[in-house]
Amino acid sequence: MSKKKTCTYLLITLIWSWTLWIIGLNHLSEGINQESIGKFITYFFAGVYGPTISGIITTLFFDGFSNFLALLKKLFIWETSFKNYLYVIFLPVLFVLIGVGLYSLFIGPIGAFDEMAFLTIPTILWAGLFAGPLGEELGWRGVLLPEFQKRFSNLKSAILIGVIWFIWHIPLFWAPFGTLVSGEPITLVPILTYFVMLICLSVIITWLVVNSKGSVLIAILFHLSINAGIVLLFFPELSMDFKKVHLLSSIGILTFTIYLVVNNKLETTTNLP
After folding, report:
1. pLDDT at 33
2. Using CA atoms, how far apart are residues 44 and 265, in angstroms rounded to an integer?
3. Are 54 and 142 in contact (CB under 8 A)?
4. What is the pTM of this model?
5. Coil, strand, or helix at residue 245?
6. Shortest CA distance to 206 belongs to which of 118, 140, 125, 107?
7. Is 230 in a helix, a strand, or coil?
8. What is the mean pLDDT of residues 205-224?
9. Helix (H) or strand (E) holding 11
């Protein structure tokens, strides 16, 4: 593993994202109104692309143009097992369903079911594609994962990226949105739950990527599916409490991650190229 490349990647990623997010948060400190929210959204979206922009810069600088092209090709690796596409679609659905069920049992009513919500799914997915998956996955899973795999196991690599992923999100804890703890009182339990969730999601995404010949496309699609929370579209009365549902979904995410680890699913596959 090239320590210089990895450290440079992490430095550029954090400087890019944190600087833009802090500038955006500064606009909100002047008062939350339509103008300040608009400015924050601009800086928020620009900051989201820190991991991908850093990945492009470090790959060009340390590995050259040919390896940069090889990196971009990972965005178009679509030939993988049909099961992986089923996982991309149905695992996030299962996780959120678990969250909805736990909410109903322990917090309150989930409201009526809106069978017409499926009409909004294409719009939600299209908008969500640019709000995180495209800005992050080429960096996290396209650049950082293969670098870590040169020295560490798939599982350890996934955990390290999960920790970094959590740290990268920290400025957004004080934002109105961007994480599951944003816009809420910053307390220990939600933060620890969010930390565990990102570690587990990193493990699951790594498992999918490794089983898809290093496909960043698969990582983007799964990230998009997780962020979209499509199940919640069918329960509009939960929209005001969607963060609690997603945090409760961590039970399902943790359970599936334990299954992958206990059964050694990450280490029985070939490493990324």
Report:
1. 87
2. 35
3. no
4. 0.95
5. helix
6. 140
7. helix
8. 97
9. helix 3-28
Report the C-alpha gap between 241 and 59 in whole angstroms: 41
Cβ neighbours, 10 Å, residue 173? 17
Strand, coil or helix: what is 210? helix
Residue type, 222: F
List CB contacts of 142: < 8 A, sequence separation 6 or more: 55, 71, 74, 75, 216, 219
Read off the tokens for 7: 């450290």
The token duo for 205 is: 């995404």
CB 95 within 8 A of CB 249: yes
Q: What is the pLDDT of residues 178-196, one digit of tens each?
A: 999 999 899 999 999 999 9
What is the Cα–Cα distance from 11 to 168, expressed in whole angstroms?
11
Name the H helices within 117-175. 121-129, 133-139, 145-149, 154-169
> Residue 214's closest CA among 78, 69, 13?
78
In this prediction, residue 228 carries a pLDDT of 94
Rounded to the nearest 10 degrees, the angle between the axes of helix 188-210 and helix 250-262 is: 50
